[in-house]
Write a structure and sequence with these properties.
The structure holds two protein chains of two kinds.
Chain A lengths: L4 E5 L2 E5 L4 E8 L5 H13 L3 E4 L3 E4 L5 E11 L2 E11 L3 E8 L3 H12 L21 E5 L2 E5 L8 E6 L2 E2 L4 H11 L6 E2 L4 E6 L5 E11 L2 E11 L3 E10 L2 H12 L9 H4 L2 H4 L1
Antiparallel strand pairs in A: 1-2, 2-3, 3-8, 4-6, 5-6, 6-7, 7-8, 9-10, 10-11, 11-17, 12-17, 13-15, 14-15, 15-16, 16-17
Chain B lengths: L9 E4 L5 E4 L13 E9 L5 H8 L4 E5 L3 E4 L5 E11 L2 E11 L4 E8 L3 H12 L21 E5 L2 E5 L6 E5 L2 E2 L3 H8 L9 E5 L5 E9 L2 E9 L3 E9 L4 H10 L23
Antiparallel strand pairs in B: 1-2, 2-3, 3-8, 4-6, 5-6, 6-7, 7-8, 9-10, 10-11, 11-16, 12-16, 13-14, 14-15, 15-16
Classes of the chains: A alpha+beta, B mainly beta.
């Protein structure tokens, strides 16, 4: 049986065994996606001696949080080592880094991922998975990710993908939608908008609204997508040039929206209280 | 009662993420006084006291009068603080309402400036009813009365209070909802109680539980563990002598549980947010 010592660090805890260590940081803030964060952390841990990089994987924790797992083999002090990085959740994320013997480090990290809860509750605004338009530049803002066309501003095209919101519409949500989700009010629409039902390739139903108009003498089109499952609403909007290729890229992105997983806490997370 | 529907207010979003809303000319509460502006900043870090927030924002104002700070709980179950001030900007006497909602490591700040004192009511109403809250069942800070004169340092999932005159520290852990997050909390906020510790029930706290005390190298250790069916709270002390046990006891007895949300949330899917 491995004996682990535990040391508090500035932002979490470090567990050490004879030739392994695991660092757990429960409140990591990031403005980049989980996959990029795993890549960056792995590059730091394994560099410059990474010899094999495993493809990134996505897991769902018992809490219903999305976790991204990455691993690499490296040479450290002349020995063959394995390092694994797991990012659970988003803002803030739980970060688990493990370094040890090949096979064991990964097992330890995955066991901790299954056992540890993020403790942020399921009914908060959360990031969700989708495929952004290829080549577009993403910028993280409060409660949303903005995707700029590669040639923006020469090509006017910005897509907003908002964090998934718990499926409620109380005062707070209505107000938040007004402050952060509503589009600028100097857009003059040409006629009424077209509303079409839609279903993403992963089965979320919703509606897509498209309207053409003018802003500051420039002819533009607006697309707003709102779809929902029984937990969350998934919202996005786009304003840009009335170009079929641009609108097609936005439609492909919104069609790729994937539903957030449900918590499976009832299955095993309360097992410790049943003893 | 001030109308909190801000849909007709003009809106500018700034690069720092703040949104500034300006009242329409015909607004019944502000029309006679011509101008009112509201500024909302989400996700401001780190959290600060309302004093510090006001100090940062008041650079170009002269404070003429400051009402006492009012503490409140939002309908979403978050803690907030609000203050109304009379200020002079240039030669103009204005009312300034400033408030914040404190999350665990971020806050939302709302402030409003107008000739009409109605702006203070509006800020207060917006804070109380219209700012989205985090999930109720998260690991979260709870209010308590810290020991007078002790110095607080925020740590991961806990706040450490350092005694001013003696080497003593109280670690007040955040409240943890029962469930998987407790394992993470126990790992990061390690409070292992040795077998030989003296265990006694703890009386007078909002939750039931007990206190374990032991001595290592003539230093007193004490851990209070309180729980109900929803929450677990732990507070620990390490001190040179047992007079600090009284300080620990007073702190623990002042702990309050997180408030229950009172949102009037209704299910529904509304596409009306797309303003065209």
């Amino acid at each position: 049986m491995t004996v682990w010592t535990r040391t508090a660090s500035v932002d979490g805890v470090v567990l050490r065994a004879s030739d392994s260590w695991i660092q757990i940081r429960p409140r990591v803030r990031t403005l980049i996606g989980a996959r990029a964060l795993v890549d960056a952390t792995l590059a730091t841990l394994a560099a410059p001696s990474a010899i094999v990089r495993e493809p990134l994987r996505t897991l769902i924790t018992p809490e219903g949080e999305l976790a991204t797992v990455g691993g690499a083999r490296c040479i450290s002090r002349g020995r063959d080592r394995e390092c694994t990085v797991v990012i659970v959740g988003d803002e803030p994320a739980l970060c688990i880094e493990a370094m040890g013997e090949p096979g064991l480090a990964r097992d330890h990290a995955l066991a901790l991922t299954r056992e540890l809860g993020l403790g942020l509750g399921g009914s908060r605004r959360r990031w969700f998975r989708y495929d952004p338009p290829a080549g577009w530049f993403g910028v993280r803002r409060s409660g949303a990710t903005l995707w700029f066309h590669p040639e923006h501003p020469r090509v006017p095209a910005i897509a907003y993908v908002f964090d998934a919101r718990p499926f409620v519409a109380g005062d707070a949500d209505r107000f938040d939608r007004f402050v952060l989700l509503s589009m600028g009010d100097d857009f003059v629409a040409h006629g009424t908008s077209k509303v079409m039902p839609m279903r993403t390739t992963h089965g979320i139903d919703g509606r897509r609204r498209v309207v053409e108009g003018n802003r500051g003498g420039r002819e533009l089109v607006r697309v707003a997508v709102a779809c929902a499952d029984d937990q969350f609403t998934y919202l996005a909007h786009f304003e840009g040039a009335n170009d079929a290729a641009l609108i097609g890229a936005v439609h492909r992105m919104t069609d790729s929206f994937r539903p957030l997983p449900q918590a499976r806490i009832a299955n095993d997370a309360f097992a410790m209280w049943e003893a | 009662m001030i109308e909190t529907d801000l849909t007709r207010w003009s809106r500018v979003q700034h690069g720092d993420g703040s949104v500034v809303l300006t009242a329409p000319i015909q607004h019944p509460a502000f029309a006679a006084n011509r101008h009112a502006a509201l500024r909302i900043r989400h996700d401001v870090r780190p959290i600060a006291t309302l004093d510090a927030v006001c100090e940062e924002l008041q650079a170009r104002m002269r404070i003429d009068r400051c009402e006492p700070t009012e503490r409140f709980v939002t309908r979403g179950g978050e803690y907030g603080a609000f203050r109304q001030l009379s200020v002079t900007v240039g030669d103009e006497a204005l009312t300034w309402g400033v408030g914040l909602i404190a999350g665990d490591d971020r806050m939302t700040i709302v402030d409003g400036l107008a000739r009409s004192p109605n702006i203070a009511t509006l800020v207060r109403d917006v804070l109380e009813g219209s700012i989205p809250a985090g999930a109720f069942e998260r690991i979260r800070m709870v209010p308590y009365r810290p020991p007078a004169g002790w110095f607080g340092v925020r740590r991961t999932l806990a706040t450490c209070w350092l005694a001013p005159e003696a080497p003593a520290v109280i670690v007040a852990c955040d409240a943890v909802p029962r469930g998987p997050a407790e394992r993470l909390h126990a790992l990061v906020c390690s409070l292992e109680i040795p077998e030989g510790a003296t265990r006694t029930p703890f009386e007078g706290a909002v939750l039931s539980g007990g206190v374990a005390t032991w001595t290592v190298d003539r230093r007193i250790w004490a851990v209070v563990e309180l729980a109900d069916e929803r929450w677990i709270v732990r507070v620990a002390l390490q001190a040179g002598d047992d007079r600090h046990l009284v300080v620990l006891r007073d702190l623990v007895r002042s702990i309050e549980l997180p408030p229950v949300p009172m949102s009037d949330a209704l299910p529904g899917l509304d596409l009306g947010w797309m303003a065209t």
